[in-house]
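### Sample
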Amino acid sequence: MTATVFRTTRFAFALLPLLAACTSLSPESRLAAGLEDAGLSKPMAQCMAKRMASRLSLAQLRKLQSLGTLRKPQGEAQTVEELVRKLRALGDPEIVAVSGKAAFSCAF
């Protein structure tokens, strides 16, 4: 019985680094990656994601994941105006408001 408990405990401790790796992708980092995939520059995407992740619900963040499918051709940058137009198409005014405020704050 003691050997089984020891093996189980040892196995659980061996899994801790793997679990930590799975949780390392925060909603903010996922959002930043999605904004980059949608065509924003890396600094703009990171700045906006930092502001947006704390103000939007998980359901709203999931809606934003669909923006990754609206990519521009390789090497072509997307403007903030184009992104806001795509955000309006999601049909959630709060996402548009939060994103617009984030874009405005990050532009300066």
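The two ends are 64 Å apart (CA to CA). This sample (Lipoprotein) is used throughout the tutorial notebook.
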